[in-house]
Amino acid sequence: MRLLSILARVGLVFLGAVLVSAVSADIVWEDSSDKEITTSDLASALFGEWALPLLALGFLMAMAMVGAAYLVRDERLVNLEWELNGGEKE
Hints:
90 residues
């Protein structure tokens, strides 16, 4: 388990290094565009070309939130009795 944790950390550092080198490469920033991007262009791209990926991402995020809420619930008998009785002894 410890080896897996170390490998995951090394992999994340490697991925970070690859992303930084890819974004900071000169070829990415050589050709600048003279066209200004407006908010209507952004909205058109988000709701036109990216509608399905955004919908899928929202669905995955909703599933993650429901799963996290389920995992956080405390189902010990003492807490369940507290919820049923309102903290009062019978």
